[in-house]
């Protein structure tokens, strides 16, 4: 019963590769690493992917307080995505939004968090991008838990950001709105990538600039406009973050640089990790980027040539530098057809299998229908079960839930099969939390029933709880093996 109590106590960040997609069940991808073609999603698809925009799936660091909230989601083909939901007053013109998003969707690069779709229905405006499981640069610099970000990783981040900006320039996307440490995210390999969300204007007129005014390019304060040189200024503020490990106003940093007080600028946790001349180079580059006059700031190509020589451990993987591990998904080898259907999240296949199985897994179990005297109550119970089973067979899942709910209230000894069938009906109705509850109740009825574990795994996957879902698959598979061994003996 430990599984029943412990598997759903938290919502972990998904830090594993998504399972191989089933082409018959969603978008067609060449492989699980491929970036899918940009597409327009329906609001229903994205609502389902985020479990109804569940607040538990918010991954933007300001949470629900942010004007534009980002959710972790999962598409029908099991691909994890980030879904950005704009505030209601953003982008009143849906055509302008779709055109802007489609333009950014054409920009593809290994240093970008690529945009893979959008949605404009009613007053909803949403963007869909690749999901990055290893947090933001801001988290690793300012709110680290195990270890501060090493010097070599900071230099790598500076170089990769410059590569991303250089590619955007070549694609004629020279404006990046609000470049900061929150816009840099780490992928499953621990490599930093620049969010494509920053290539989309923050508002319909392109004037919005949401950073703290202390870090805003001077020309924006004067004119309310962002220009390509503003991106260089913001890059300079990111360099300050990387050097200092804290938010430091550019004016204060420049005073320290002019006064040759580099030690006061540098993050003390980096002591002994860098050569003084390398730190000096990076500080001087930041100073160039932060020049008051836009014309005095360097080109992006200069940033690349300046940072490239400072990289010393190019052969060491980012995950190693950061002290992170990449754990691949290893699906159990012994999975029944039901288990495999749950992995694919193929609800139609699950329905067919449950219909074929019927109630035979409960044969021999103490049951209300077998042990009560033949009374009107039992007749009502049988009729309710009959109507529930007919609705379930006919895919009338709304009525199936109603009849099975009535049946559960009538039975003193609940049926695991009824709970499992109602769980699937809840999933078909887009209610994965209720489905998870029922699948757990089925496990209470039949503690070693693989079907109960597989259905929990399916509901957990729908909720985006990948680690717990795999645990349940493993548990179901182990009971499957145990059952098969008992038959052989």
TrEMBL record:
Coiled-coil intervals: none
Annotated Gene Ontology cellular component terms: plasma membrane
EC numbers: 2.7.11.1
Pfam family, one: PK_Tyr_Ser-Thr
Stated name of the protein: non-specific serine/threonine protein kinase
Family per record: Belongs to the protein kinase superfamily. Ser/Thr protein kinase family.
Domain Protein kinase: 56-311
Reactions catalysed, as given in the entry: L-threonyl-[protein] + ATP = O-phospho-L-threonyl-[protein] + ADP + H(+); L-seryl-[protein] + ATP = O-phospho-L-seryl-[protein] + ADP + H(+)
Alphabetized UniProt keyword annotations: ATP-binding, Brassinosteroid signaling pathway, Cell membrane, Kinase, Lipoprotein, Membrane, Myristate, Nucleotide-binding, Serine/threonine-protein kinase, Transferase
Compartments where found: Cell membrane
UniProt membrane topology term: Lipid-anchor
GO biological process, one term: brassinosteroid mediated signaling pathway
Source species of the chain: Prunus avium (Cherry)
Annotated transmembrane regions: none
Name of encoding gene: LOC110756060
PROSITE patterns linked to this entry: PROTEIN_KINASE_DOM
GO molecular function, one term: ATP binding
Region of interest called Disordered, as start-end residue ranges on this chain: 1-32
């Amino acid at each position: 019963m430990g599984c029943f109590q412990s598997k759903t106590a938290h919502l972990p960040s998904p830090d594993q590769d998504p399972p191989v997609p089933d082409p018959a069940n969603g978008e067609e991808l060449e492989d699980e690493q491929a970036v899918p073609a940009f597409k327009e999603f329906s609001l229903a698809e994205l609502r389902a992917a985020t479990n109804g925009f569940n607040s538990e799936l918010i991954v933007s660091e300001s949470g629900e307080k942010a004007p534009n909230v980002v959710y972790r989601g999962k598409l029908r083909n099991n691909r994890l995505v980030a879904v950005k939901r704009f505030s209601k007053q953003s982008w009143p013109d849906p055509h302008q939004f779709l055109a802007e998003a489609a333009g950014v969707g054409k920009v593809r690069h290994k240093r970008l968090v690529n945009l893979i779709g959008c949605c404009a229905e009613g007053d909803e405006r949403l963007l869909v991008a690749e999901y990055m499981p290893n947090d933001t640069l801001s988290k690793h610099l300012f709110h680290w838990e195990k270890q501060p970000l090493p010097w070599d990783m900071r230099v790598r981040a500076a170089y990769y950001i410059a590569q991303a900006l250089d590619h955007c320039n070549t694609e004629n996307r020279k404006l990046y709105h609000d470049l900061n440490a929150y816009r840099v995210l780490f992928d499953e390999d621990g490599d930093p990538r620049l969010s494509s969300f920053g290539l989309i204007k923050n508002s319909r007129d392109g004037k919005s600039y949401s950073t703290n005014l202390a870090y805003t390019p001077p020309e924006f304060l004067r004119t309310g406009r962002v220009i390509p040189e503003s991106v260089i200024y913001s890059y300079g503020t990111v360099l300050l973050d990387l050097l200092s490990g804290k938010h430091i106003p550019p004016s204060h940093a420049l005073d320290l640089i002019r006064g040759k007080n580099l030690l006061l600028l540098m993050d003390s946790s980096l002591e002994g990790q860098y050569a003084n001349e390398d730190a000096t180079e990076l500080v001087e580059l930041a100073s160039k980027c932060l020049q008051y006059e836009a014309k005095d700031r360097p080109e992006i190509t200069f940033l690349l040539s300046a940072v490239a020589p400072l990289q010393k451990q190019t052969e060491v993987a980012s995950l190693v530098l950061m002290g992170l591990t990449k754990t691949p998904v290893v699906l159990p080898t012994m999975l029944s057809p039901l288990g495999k259907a749950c992995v694919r999240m193929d609800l139609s296949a699950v329905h067919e299998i449950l219909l074929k199985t019927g109630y035979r897994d409960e044969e021999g179990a103490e049951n209300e229908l077998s042990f009560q005297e033949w009374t009107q109550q039992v007749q009502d119970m049988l009729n309710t079960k009959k109507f529930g089973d007919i609705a379930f067979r006919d895919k009338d899942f709304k009525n199936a839930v109603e009849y099975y709910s009535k049946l559960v209230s009538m039975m003193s000894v609940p049926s695991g099969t009824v709970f499992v069938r109602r769980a699937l009906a809840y999933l078909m109705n887009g209610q994965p939390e209720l489905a998870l509850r029922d699948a757990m109740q089925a496990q209470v009825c039949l503690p070693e029933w693989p079907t109960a574990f597989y259905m929990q795994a399916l509901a957990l996957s729908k909720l985006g709880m990948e680690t717990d879902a795999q645990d349940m698959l493993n548990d179901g598979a182990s009971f499957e093996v145990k059952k098969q061994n008992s038959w052989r003996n």
